[in-house]
Amino acid sequence: MAAELRAGLVGLGSMGRHHARVLREMPGVELVGAVDPTGDPYGVAADVPVYREVAELIAAGVDMAVVAAPTVTHEPVGLELAAAGVHTMVEKPIAADVAGAQRLVDAFDAAGLVGAVGHIERFNPALQALRSRVLSGELGDVYQIVTRRQGPFPQRIADVGVVKDLATHDIDLTAWIAGSPYTTVAAQVAARSGREHEDLVAATGRLANGTVVNHLVNWLSPMKERLTMVTGERGAFVADTIGVDLTYYANGTFATEWDSVANFRGVTEGDVTRFALAKREPLRLEHEAFRDAVLGVRDEVVSLREGLATLRVAESLLEASDTGRTVTLPA
To answer: What's the whole-model pTM score?
Structure first.
């Protein structure tokens, strides 16, 4: 039997504790150490040592590492791990800015290492099923992708705003589902809660394949919502990534003759189908993909280069809001 991959974890906060749990449970991987200068607030390290410095984790010997520390540390920690020859997955966003993200991409490419970004929505079974059905042509031509991601402010976030922390989910999953990059974006942002960074954004854009996109994201809503809606020539898919549900609304072929119902439902009524899905935990699926990429079994991680592209769109949204203009992204 092949030896287990020795894994390290940087960051034991509210997200790091979940990574620690999955790393402990995953076959083929052994969690051998963690790094957090504040210690282990959730008591998840158990019997593995907790170091104050990344250099100490590297010295202990690790094959792979997960970085779940604050966004501003992603670049320096990632560069240190790349220099030591450690395959690394960093939580999203890839870095605090595009320049730092580019340095990470270059470092991991030069070292020939697996570098990944934790865009976990790609591993949600509802979105995986949605993408598969869209790419197989079930909708025909895709016209529009709309996302709504709303909820109360997470106390763990302090170093970036809602665009880089939360809207990056929607940017990444939209380009992934459509199989097409962003070409133009426009946005309005606001800070309404007294914090340093923006806490809501309303964004629009267009992808290279002509798909129109819209994202509504905030940290101000008392209710939590995670919806992705894809509309095409044959109907619409709606994915709820909280409940891990996927529903298909087919275009109708029969006109509704009862006027009051037609006004309420629309002029035609088609079938509505909610698909049965195997609801495995997205974080576990993400870790399995990273492990398998390190082993060379399959390559289904979100690459650092894809994370860079997502962050570039996020920064373009902020620029669009600042200038009041539509921003064109580089080809």
So the answer is: 0.92
Collapsing DSSP to helix, strand or coil, 305 comes out as: helix
- Asked if omega into 70 is within 30° of 0 (cis), the reply is no
> pLDDT of 123-168, one tens digit each?
999 999 999 999 999 999 999 999 999 998 876 666 789 999 999 9
- Residue 142: beta bridge partners? 232
The torsion angles phi and psi of 66, rounded to 5 degrees, stand at -115, 130
Q: How many Cα atoms are found within 13 Å in the side-chain-facing hemisphere of 119? A: 32
Q: Let me know: does 21 contact 48? Beta carbons within 8 Å.
A: no
Cα–Cα dist 59/61, whole Å = 5
Q: What is residue 326's DSSP assignment?
A: P
- For 28-37, the pLDDT digits (tens) are 999 999 999 9
Q: Which residues of the chain have pLDDT under 70?
A: 1-3, 155-158, 253-269
For residue 128, what are its two tokens? 């995986």
Residue 242: CB atoms within 10 Å: 12
Distance separating alpha carbons of residues 300 and 106, to the nearest angstrom: 20
Backbone angles phi, psi at 312, to 5 degrees: -65, -40
Among 71, 39, 64, 70, residue whose Cα is nearest residue 52: 39
User: Cβ distance 184 to 327 under 8 Å?
Assistant: yes
**Residues 11 and 36: beta-carbon distance below 8 Å:** yes
**Residue that has been written with the tokens 């619409």 in this structure:** 236
Counting beta carbons within 10 angstroms of the beta carbon of residue 53, is it exposed (0 to 12), middle (13 to 18) or buried (19 or more)?
exposed
